[in-house]
Design goal:
- The complex is a heterodimer.
- Chain A is mostly beta strands.
- Chain A has strands at 4-6, 11-14, 19-25, 32-38, 45-50, 54-58, 61-66, 71-76, 85-92, 98-100, 104-109.
- Chain B has strands at 4-7, 10-13, 19-25, 32-38, 45-51, 57-58, 67-73, 76-81, 90-97, 106-108, 112-116.
- In chain B, the strands form 2 sheets. In chain B, strands 2, 4, 5, 6, 9, 10 and 11 form a 7-stranded mixed β-sheet that branches. Chain B has a 4-stranded antiparallel β-sheet with strand order 1-3-8-7, with no helix packed on it.
- Chain B is globular and about 40 Å long.
- The chains are: A mainly beta, B mainly beta.
- At the A-B interface, strand 4, strand 5, strand 9 and strand 10 of A face strand 10 of B.
């Protein structure tokens, strides 16, 4: 069983719509959760971090965490073509290591 | 965010040669750096954790004699792929965490694309 799971997509959304990305994780003691955006051929770029249950908003992005359900999500409001990328969910449990999901590819169509 | 710089961004080498990749934290000190590799359309796989002034910690299945890691200062870690072969061709990415705590955000270098002919 994979430790961090994401739907690989592609998730196709029209420009201006909301993109909803989901991530589940297996380690119940996970404490830190991150969303990264990766454009093709580039390295990941941090978008959001979230550490406690609930919602965290930053501009057009909202991260949601539910530790009881072992679930973290990312909402992208007013999606733009420039948001087209692969979004990686990352979870930190014990120690230093960050475990990444397989990524969800998002396509925003004009 | 914090800046992590990686060099070279692309390298092409012949089979059997060794390649060194540098990772620098530009505006902060990093006692720990992480080396990942990524195959096309796949996620990041942690190879090793680089610790300043001590030996690196390698993940299961990663050959320490193949992938030499040196973290000689608080701002520089190097990964040397020794006797590279075509199957070593991949995207190698380093990362570092600001501060000495085990929590917090991880920042990535630009990545180094290695092609072994």
């Amino acid at each position: 069983q994979k430790e961090v799971e994401q739907n690989s997509g592609p998730l196709s959304v029209p420009e201006g719509a909301i993109a909803s990305l989901n991530c589940t994780y297996s380690d119940r003691v996970s404490q830190s959760f991150f969303w990264y955006r990766q454009y093709s051929g580039k390295s990941p770029e941090l978008i959001m971090s979230i550490y406690s249950n609930g919602d965290k908003e930053d501009g057009r992005f909202t991260a949601q965490l539910n530790k009881a359900s072992q679930y973290v999500s990312l909402l992208i409001r007013d999606s733009q073509p420039s948001d087209s990328a692969t979004y990686l969910c990352a979870v930190q449990a014990a120690g230093n290591k960050l475990t990444f999901g397989g990524g969800t590819r998002v396509l925003v169509k004009p | 965010g914090a800046v992590v710089s990686q060099h070279p961004s692309r390298v092409i080498c012949k089979s059997g040669t060794s390649v060194k990749i540098e990772c620098r934290s530009l505006d902060f000190q990093a006692t720990t750096m992480f080396w990942y590799r990524q195959f096309p359309k796949k996620s990041l796989m942690l190879m090793a954790t680089s610790n300043e002034g001590s030996k690196a910690t390698y993940e299961q299945g990663v050959e320490k004699d193949k992938f030499l890691i040196n973290h000689a200062s608080l701002t520089l870690s190097t990964l040397t792929v020794t006797s590279a072969h075509p199957e070593d061709s991949s995207f190698y990415i380093c990362s570092a965490r600001v501060g000495i705590a085990n929590t917090g955000e991880l920042f990535f270098g630009e990545g180094s694309r290695l092609t072994v002919l």
